[in-house]
Amino acid sequence: MSKIKVMDEVLANKIAAGEVVEKTMNVVKELVENSIDAKSTEISIKLIDSGVKEIEVSDNGIGMDEEDAKMAFQRHATSKLKNLDDLFYIESLGFRGEALPSIASVSNVRLKTSDGTCGTLVTISGGKDMKVERCDLQTGTTITVSDLFYNTPVRLKYLKNLYVELAHIVEYINKMALSYPNIKFTLINNDKTLLQTDGNGDLLKVIYAIYGIDITKKMIPISGENDDYYLNGYISYPEVTKGNRNSITTLVNGRVIKNNELNKCIVDCYHTYIHKDRYPIIVLNIDVDPILIDINIHPTKMDIKFSKMDTLKDLVIELITKRLEELTLIPEVSVRDSYSVSEVHRQIVTKEPEKELIEVDNKTYEEMTLDFEVAEAKQVYQESTEVKETEETISEEETSKEKKIRIKKMIPRGVVLLTYIVAENEDGMYLIDQHAAAERINYEKILKQMNEKPVIVDLLVPIKIELRPDEFILIKERFELLEKYGFNVSEFGFNTIIIRSHPAWIVEDRAEDIIRKIVDIIIEKGSFDFDQFVWRMAATTACRMSVMANTYISEEDQEWILENIRYCDNPFTCPHGRPTIITYTRYELERLFKRQLD
Question: What is the reported pTM?
C-alpha cells in the first residue's frame, strides 16, 4: 500500500498559514495589500484586542462579484498572474494566492463585497463550511477575521502580548501610509484611533501624522535618478535619530521591504554624522522596472533582491551625502512653553488671514492644525533653501578656501566646566565641545595625510606586542595593509609582532597607545571591512591626540579650534557622531529672558 498521499486542502492551507500568518500583523498586511491592489482610496483597519479577537479591514475598492468572492478562498487562486512571464513583471502587492485561504484555515472569516452590480456575503470557519449569501450593493470590500488561531492553540499560545502585537501592526500601517500618501488610512484599536491620514497625496503630512511637527521640521526632501532607478523621499537631519532601524522606511514600487544591504548603505551615509548606535528617520521611495527585482523569495514578500544593487547603492550614497553636505547642521536649543505650542498657528493665520478664513468654513480645527504645521515645516525648508542659494551666489565670488567655510566666524568668550567653549557672533551664542571639535579637526587632517604618500617616523624603542595564536594569524594577514599606511611591522618570535616605525600623523607621545588600539581593531572578530578600518584608525588616532574634556585651554587654543572647525568638510559632529557645536539663537535667548514675546 502506498505510503505517500496527497494532503487535503484544509491541511495544506494550515501548513501554508505557518509561513504566511505568523502574527496578527501578517493578517493585516495581507488584507491591506489586497485593498490597495483593488484600487482603493480609503482603507479602514479596526482591531479588537490588537487583532487577536477581531480584525476588520474595509475599503472602497473595485470589489468582487460572487464567483470571484468564492474563488478567492481557493489556494493559488489569484487575479494578479496569468502565466509564467507575469512572474517576472509583478506590479501588484499580492500575487501568490495563498493569503486568504491560509488566513481562513486558522480563523473565522466574513467577506462582504460588491462590484456595484451584485453584493456577496461569504462566511467560512476554519477553512471549510463556506456559506454564500446576497448583501447590499455598496461598492468595496470588508473582510472580518475573528478568533485568530482558535483551531491551532499552540500558535495562539506563542503570540506575543497584545502590546507587542499592536506595535507590529502600527509600525506596518505607518509604513503603508508613507508608501501611499494618496490613500486615506484609518487605524483603530478598541475604539481608539491610532492613525488617520487624509489621503491628499502630501507625504509630508503623513510624516507629520506619524512623527509630529518637531521631526517634520527636520525632514529634508531628496530626489534623483540614474539609468535604472528613480529615488525620492525624505531624510532626517542627523540630530534627529532613533535607537533602532524601524524608522528607516524603504519602498520599492509601493511595496514596503526590508533589505539589510540597502539599510546598511543608508546608515553608512550618516557615517560620522550620528553615533554608531543611532539611526536616522528615512522615507525612501524607489521606482524601478519590475524586471530588475525579484520579490518571490519569501512568503511575506518583504524581502527583495535587486539585479543591479551597485547602481542603486551609488545613487543612494550620492543623493544623501550631497544633501547632508549642503546643510548647516548646528542643533538649535529651542524654548518650549504654553505660548510656543500655539505660536505657529497664530503666525500663519496672521500672515494670510483672508485665505485662512475662507478655509475655516470647510475644514475642522484638526485639519487646519495639520495644514498649518506642515505648511510651516515646508516654509522652514524653503527659507533654508533660499539662504543656501544666496550663500552659493556670494560664494562664487570668494576664494576657493572661503567656499569650504560652513560656519560663520565665532569669537571665543571663555570656557565653562573646563569642556565647553562659549562663543558668539551676530546670529547668537554657541557652545563648542572642545574635545569633539578638536577631534573632528584632527580626524580630517589625518584622513588627508593617509591618502598621501606616508611620512615615516622611526621609533627609538620599537614596540613589541604579544598576541594569542588566533590573533597573530589575523594581524599577520594585514601586514601589507599596515605597511601601506606607513607602519614597519614584522614577526618577532612566537606569536609576537614588532613595530619599528609609524606614520607621522601619529603623535610621538601617544604612539604606543594608538598603535596597540589599531592592532585591536584589526584582530576584532567578524568580517574585515576596509572602509571601517580606515575610519576607525583615523578616528582612534584623532581622539587620542585631541585636547580632552575637563582640561584647561588658553584663549589661543580656543581661537585655533574655532577657526579650524570652520574649514572642516563636516564641522558639525565628531568622527563618532557626537555634536561638536550647538547654538542659542538671538531669538531663543530673548525668549528665555522674556525680551521677545511675539
Answer: 0.68
